[in-house]
Fold each of these.
Amino acid sequence: GAGVSQSPSNKVTEKGKDVELRCDPISGHTALYWYRQRLGQGLEFLIYFQGNSAPDKSGLPSDRFSAERTGESVSTLTIQRTQQEDSAVYLCASSFFRGVQETQYFGPGTRLLVL
Amino acid sequence: DQQVKQNSPSLSVQEGRISILNCDYTNSMFDYFLWYKKYPAEGPTFLISISSIKDKNEDGRFTVFLNKSAKHLSLHIVPSQPGDSAVYFCAASARVFGNEKLTFGTGTRLTIIP
């Protein structure tokens, strides 16, 4: 596809369950970012991938959060033992990374609701 | 701490007039600034950016101004159109971070009144 895609678009889960969120970046984009937006707040950075490596995980809020990227393409964000405060829109973005600042292009997001 | 601040949560502007959205930042390491527009149930869409070596960048109806000494940037939309009604996010990044992770403001909801 032409843009960044994410799945599922919506996810409702019970507290304590694990969830997996998927991101398909724009083909050829080497950099991939995960952000989240909680209600009434701005977007907050979670993790950055360059290729399949994650040199910056500084935004992950707890060890219940993990992410991986394979084939320099698809990325999965996993939240274990979900809590109600994990409810948010999780957004993925991708860009070229050529040593100069590049525009990040965002997917539509996954809306996660933890009951 | 909120390193990028958008102090106006909402703004209403008459169609055809100028919309001015403001953003302040505190981290002097930021050297690249972007504006994104977001419609409900969609991801943010890139609008315009500016590097810290410039003080103005223009693209059609959109102009971004950067005042480094005041750590302030603004987005001007002229003339404003009904389709401009959306939430606008200011974002900043710094090459010193080693990547381009964005720090976002909390957004300003712009409503264009026909």
Note: Chain A has a mean pLDDT of 92.
Amino acid sequence: AQTIHQWPVAEIKAVGSPLSLGCTIKGKSSPNLYWYWQATGGTLQQLFYSITVGQVESVVQLNLSASRPKDDQFILSTEKLLLSHSGFYLCAWSPSVWGEDTQYFGPGTRLLVL
Amino acid sequence: TQTVSQSDAHVTVFEGDSVELRCNYSYGGSIYLSWYIQHHGHGLQFLLKYYSGNPVVQGVNGFEAEFSKSDSSFHLRKASVHWSDSAVYFCAVSSYGSSGNKLIFGIGTLLSVKP
């Protein structure tokens, strides 16, 4: 069975400080990976997706970047946090890029920027 | 442009009641519709998905949803709710395009189940 792990569970960071959030998928080779952001009490918005190692596509620009250094790892980062970055960050995976494939989500990382 | 509309922000029912959470979509191409559940402070759990065939889809924990092309709807139903069903429910439409396998979510419906 596939498992998806996100770290850290939660972060409190200062405006202007750097950020790195991680996501690891176990039990599935070459998954398609996604980052979503959810404002408090709001809906989800896809930020990035990756089909393979070293390849990342940006869907929405929020002064964030993403990288895929390993087949099973997806990293979300920024050098300077903004207040608007606060929220819930969810990583997801699917077997392929096709619309009929289900996306499965991780437990999420809650971020508060002060 | 794909859109997903969940007209009810908050639905309150009693334990044992039936419930229907509404979802309407607009999209011109091949469409795949899903429902996810999010308990407070947690990630999303997949409930069910429609992409072809029988318009009534069975999901986990007694949930089912019915796809209607004529009404552009994909409403979620449960015959008898339990207090543990209290959560936010998101309807989503997915497609393949320039953004890969992109999920467009509705704003969510908060279901509160009273004892």
Note: The interface with chain B takes residues 6, 32, 34, 36, 42-46, 49, 51, 57, 59, 90, 92, 94, 96-108, 110 of chain A (CB under 8 Å).
Amino acid sequence: AQTVTQSQPEMSVQEAETVTLSCTYDTSESDYYLFWYKQPPSRQMILVIRQEAYKQQNATENRFSVNFQKAAKSFSLKISDSQLGDAAMYFCVKEGGSEKLVFGKGTKLTVNP
Amino acid sequence: EAEVAQSPRYKITEKSQAVAFWCDPISGHATLYWYRQILGQGPELLVQFQDESVVDDSQLPKDRFSAERLKGVDSTLKIQPAELGDSAMYLCASSSGQATLNTEAFFGQGTRLTVV
């Protein structure tokens, strides 16, 4: 079975600082998608950023960027200039065959003013 | 902006009763997912549909859970009988179903079930 591991149950960052959330995954596929989803308290899950495995270039979306290391099966999320609104649960997600989505257990991010 | 609609938002039911949740995906989305999310954990897939067909229900407790998507549009997830351990958030999501295109999944706000 495919697994996604987030080794940091909780992280905290000062407002305006940078934080990196870690994720590793297990797969035998060569082509797949990776995502980071954000789930704010009592609100619905939304996509933060996505990465296609066949693309070597790391994805970037404004203050959010990833460090994708395909050989190491690592996919970390970097949040720059952290804002109070970034506080949420962050899930690393792998999409494999048949669009099946496998979630990690999540990292709870706290942003301190 | 198109959204995945779920109802009810909250449900309290007694142990051994039946309960049902409804999901209306984004129009045109062929793939529909039902996830169960226990507080503080990541979502776990219960069932995945491609149009009206079940693609994956390997983690669905079939003795008490059932799911259908009869016309390939909206979907219903049923639990009968409910047990205390079923208390969780039930999330519905949909995606375009086109493997060569954007496979982003869009999530509904979920149904929070409490079994007492």
Note: Chain B touches chain A at residues 31, 33, 35, 40-45, 48, 50, 55-56, 91, 93, 95, 97, 99, 103-105, 107-110 (CB under 8 Å).
